[in-house]
Amino acid sequence: MRFASIGSGSEGNGTLICHKDTVILLDCGFSAKETVRRLRCKGIEPEQLSAILVTHEHGDHIKGVSVLSSQYDIPVYLTWGTFCCKPLQKRPLDERLVNIITPHQSFAVGSIQVQPVPVPHDAREPAQFVFSNERWRLGVLTDVGSITPHIISVYEDCDALLLECNHDLSLLANGSYPPALKRRVAGDYGHLNNQQAASLLQSVYSERMQHLVVTHISQKNNELEKVTDSLVAAIHCCPDWIRMADQDNGFEWMTLTEKVAVSEV
Ligand SMILES: [Zn+2]
Ligand SMILES: [Zn+2]
Q: Which ligand is nearest the CA of 87, by number?
């Protein structure tokens, strides 16, 4: 199983999850044209996409969904609440391509098993996802205001984790956002701050984790050094092991591989 991002942050999101011939695009927060450009930068043609999965209806996750899916006949998977939201009704999806999912039931897309996870976020029926096959588990968790016991139990034992570290609480408090937006971002239905992300990581981390990628980082209310310090303090890992996704390029392909035992020379 391998994965990459075509961009991550409040200006647009898109994550690729790939196993054998199955290629899933998780969220499509760029225009269709821009998404195609970004997919090609990762070596993927839009015709290769098996499905677009949508986490929730905020613009940074759905901007190009309708156009891309109808242009290339790509099935879209989303909850009923997300499907009914105003932004998607304005530019409706082609009904032939719509697959309504429940956030409590796993389903398969080609050779990838997809487990939705209901999360607290200020959207109609938001879900995040754990992707797996017979060997690997990849967890993706962004746009979450607070950590629930269910989230902790589902994200245990992942081989790779893409985790939101949206903001640093004091940078947000002292930053330029208007008070209402500060309250929204920091609230229980907003976004994960560095400390919340670190505490979740501490709960779910195991030796099994090969990759940790930090995603959905606020460009205004966070600093990469603060993110690294929080996560290293939580699991005592090497700082260089933590990767950061960015708005322009996301991150390059990462592959889950069997650990090769180092034989003594
Ligand atoms: Zn978002
Ligand atoms: Zn959101």
A: 2
> What integer pLDDT is reported at residue 91 of this predicted model?
84
Considering every ligand atom, which ligand is closest to the CA of 142? 1
How many angstroms separate the alpha carbon of residue 60 from the centre of ligand 1?
5
CA of 121 to the centre of ligand 1 (A): 10
Which regions in the chain score pLDDT beneath 50?
265
- Ligand closest to Cα of 13 equals 1
CA of residue 58 to ligand 1 center, whole Å = 6
Domains, the chain = 2-251 (3.60.15.10)
pTM: 0.96
Read off the pLDDT of residues 14-66 as tens digits, 9 standing for 90 and up.
999 999 999 999 999 999 999 999 999 999 999 999 999 999 999 999 999 99
d(CA 85, CA 167): 27
CA 119, distance to chain mean position in Å, is 12
